[in-house]
Amino acid sequence: MTTLLERIESKRDDMVDLTQALVRIPSVNPPGDAYTPCVELIGNRLKRRGFDVMYYRAEGTPGDTDEYPRMNVVARIEGRRPGPCVHFNGHIDVVEVGAGWSTDPFAGVIRDNRIYGRGACDMKGGLAASIVAMEALLELHPNFPGAIEISATADEETGGYGGVAWLAEAGIMASPRIDHVIIPEPLNKDRVCLGHRGVWWAEIETFGRIAHGSMPFLGDSAIRHMFAVLDAFEQRLYPALGTKRTNMPVVPDGARSSTMNINSVHGGQGEHFSGLPAAAVADSCRTVIDRRFLIEEDITDVKAEVRDILEHLRSHRDHFRYELRDLFEVIPTMTEREAPVVTAVSRAVQKVLGKPPQLVVSPGTYDQKHIDRIGRLNNCIAYGPGILDLAHQPDEYIDIDDMVISARVMALAAYELLFGAA
Question: Which residues pair with 207 in a beta bridge?
């Protein structure tokens, strides 16, 4: 195994070049820019290294258009004899740039042994590390059993429906076609992520009656009704959420309780106008809630907590009317600690870093949800370089040493999953 670790070290510059090349493709989502050149860069590279490469457009999925096609690539190389399929999956989309950058977010600048750029941490650096790790493994062990796959997929930042979900529905990223999945999300090089909390997004709309702003008593303010909703959340729901704790090893510690974020509130006249607003009572107000829940909670109960508050207001507040609309939901998932992919990556971390990894659960969801729920494959974890807190931040970066360390871990883990424990 020393030779494999040395081979990866010799590929440090190649790993840096690949990461920079990926960062320089501005695959911002939404809307889904530059997916095609991004997957083609990866596909062309892997084809030159002997992989069979297939491109898939997830037609009909949210956001897919001829201008912004939801493109994915899956590359596979077969071994010389039967065995398991080890699959590495990384998403190519990145979030909007935002303000506060001290460098060009798509230049891939190197500074202090770090590659800076939007997506460097989340998760083009991890994707590059997995590609180089598998190339090193194939160079030293061309007679491996089973199969190795690498995929680069769309839309993880907006739910993954044009990427992993579509591929899982098609039976491509699903059992029994694949056996082990490692997703190199930026969860720190000494952590193995077993899964994630659940999520329920919903929109609440309150209704009123328009009137002149100088005579609000002739109307009915939907904004005041929404204030009553938010106040009830503060008085009743948030204190209850704080008492719920999970046995899942969620990080950071605050996420071991149930949480809810008020994502947005919009009421009355639109925000995009010039001049002064008209004097009018708002007849509609909308808020979007982002509820994160624990594996010990049932999604039906999670929804009932909110609906019960709304129904109480309808019964006790004059003229209160509302609609509650589901937007998105994911059930919590957590791979067993004894699963083969967990033990293989954990042993690899021990060998490379000299200490066992911390087994964690993510506060937010990622594409493991689709592999588990649609692909019917629970043997899936997230492991990769990068500091989770840097994701989506200005001056996002990936540490080059961390990429090399994580590539070593991924290579050792893949070797064990293919050949068996040493």
Answer: 284
Compute the distance between CA of residue 413 and CA of residue 383 in angstroms, rounded to an integer.
11
pTM of the model: 0.91
* Residues 295 and 215 reside in one and the same domain: yes
For 356, other C-beta atoms within 10 Å of its C-beta total 12
| Cα–Cα distance for residue pair 220/409, rounded to 1 Å | 61
Domain termination residue (choose one: 303, 330, 357): 330
Q: Which residues contact 377 (CB under 8 A, 6 or more apart)?
A: 174, 175, 178, 179, 181, 371
Nearest residue to 164 via CA among 153, 174, 175: 153
Give CA 232 to chain center in angstroms. Answer: 31
pLDDT tens-digit map of 272-310: 777 888 999 999 999 999 999 999 999 999 999 999 999
How many Å apart are CA 416 and CA 409, to the nearest integer? 11
Q: How many CB atoms lie within 10 A of CB 389?
A: 11
Residue 67, Cβ density class (10 Å: 0-12 exposed, 13-18 middle, ≥19 buried): exposed
- Structurally, the chain folds into a number of domains equal to 2
Residue 192 bridge partners (DSSP):
359
Domain that holds residue 70: 2-196+333-419
DSSP conformational letter for 284: E
Tokens of 122: 């989340």
Looking up residue 314, the CATH number of its domain turns out to be 3.30.70.360
How many Cα atoms occupy the beta-carbon half-sphere of 291 within 13 Å? 30
188-247 tens-digit pLDDT: 999 999 999 999 999 999 999 999 999 999 999 999 999 999 999 999 999 999 999 999
For residue 149 the two structure tokens come to 């796959």
Collapsing DSSP states into helix, strand and coil, what is residue 56? strand
The predicted-structure confidence for 358-379, as pLDDT tens digits, reads as follows: 999 999 899 999 999 999 999 9
Q: Burial, 274: exposed, middle or buried (Cβ in 10 Å; 0-12, 13-18, 19+)? A: exposed
Length of the chain: 422
